[in-house]
Amino acid sequence: MANDKKMVEQITAMDVDFAQWYTDVVKKAELVDYSGVKGCMIIRPYGYAIWENIQHDLDARFKRLGHENVYMPMFIPESLLQKEKDHVAGFAPECAIVTIGGQNKLAERLVVRPTSETLFCDHYKNIIHSYRDLPKLYNQWCNVVRWEKTTRPFLRTSEFLWQEGHTMHANEEEAREETLQMLKCYEDFYRETLAIPAVTGRKTEKEKFAGAMETYTIEPMMHNGVALQGGTSHYFGDGFCRAFDITFTDKDNQVRYPHQTSWGVSTRMIGAIIMTHGDDNGLILPPKVAPIQVAIIPVAQHKEGVLEKANELKNLLAESFRVKLDDSDNSTGWKYSQYEMKGVPLRLELGPRDIENNCCVLVSRVSREKKVVSLDHLVEEVKAALASVHDELLARAEKNLQEKMSIARTHEEFLDIAENHPGFIKAMWCGDSACEDQLKDETGGVKSRCIPFVEEHLGDTCVCCGKPAKHMVVFGRQY
RNA sequence: CGGGGUGUGGCGCAGUUGGUAGCGCGCGACGUUUGGGACGUCGAUGCCGCAGGUUCGAAUCCUGUCACUCCGACCA
User: Which nucleotide is nearest to A441 (CA to C1')?
Assistant: First the structure.
């Protein structure tokens, strides 16, 4: 049995065509189907179950930090969206707008929410009056619509599912703290739950969210070296509050504007999982979000006692794990491939020989090595095997991130790396967005990802213009 | 928004100089199989993207239109 042999012919190899590989995996693993509306995807049960697991984990993290869930309308009156000028300028080009209700033309057009800052502000205006009303720590799970020109399942879709946290604070310090805390929350989630390492930091002026004073971002690197903006956390200052006239009376009897944050992650994370962990045999799911953690495959299931024993193991394991016993009449080989394609982290094979010896075979999706284990300590063995899958995935992704991280000290070096070495590039930068534009033009799409929290001193001058450098920036192409 | 490509059973495709639609996979039944995508027999499935036109006759030729897709540009 050759481990390096590609077992699944329906999936295009990564090296041949990464984009096609991605599309194949998304379809063959039954995560999505295309719908009749451009850019809108049907998230199938297996894909949606991943999202549900993500939600459960993240939601618990948010609540532990004191946040409450709410639900806002999906329609925003156009005038409301226009209250904050930077915000509307950023989103206007990609809004879907409802103009007819029933049979009648609407008096005011309704924008299908691309994000809900304005709705939250409109509501906060009514419920925030005193410092005693602060902080307000709200979150909502919902869908949003952004009319994208080019779309790809999970990575960029016209409609997507996400969570958006919107908080209000009595002062700047507290709001800034919240902004950073939530980015840290995302970073922990990415590592601990998705097994994905990432670069984190602050967006440059040019890449900031429309209307924000600061945007912080988490930027994981995909297997092919391309970045994915994996989540953002924004500090707004009091800009929206001034535009929406939200005020409160502080302890000292002074009327003040609250300070605001928002933060969000979306179904795009599923795209990050696919492109970070997947291989030529298909998807590999981090155990903590895998809808099926253990697939039990009976061997020679028609033989006396095999299915009975398999069911017994299923019931035992189901107390601690998400388990599926496949007793369909597909061949065992077909089942092996099927669950590998769908990224199930652990396979358990059980046949007559195993039953005779009171053991079974565990196969990790990452290494595809078979390990014979005794049935006496099965729960512990499975637990350890799943933990090891998580660790291996994280280690592998970290290795990829390090290997594809380059340093550019000169302009020529930057262009050479951009051309010949896929991945992130660390370089010094003067702070002028003209240099960002120039580098992007010259390289055909390499943009600043962020100014990392921990900067290194790589030199004194900007990699683009040669003027004194202000920051170290991580650059890269993005999805 | 510019440039290219593709629309034919569920999926992937073939279809010659116009003659009334085929293959593989999948699907269903039965039988044999079962430790890395098994095999045989039988069977079901088509407004050939849509609308016009040419013609005795159009999947095929002409015009228009719509959708999808890839590469740019734009964008979280």
Answer: B73
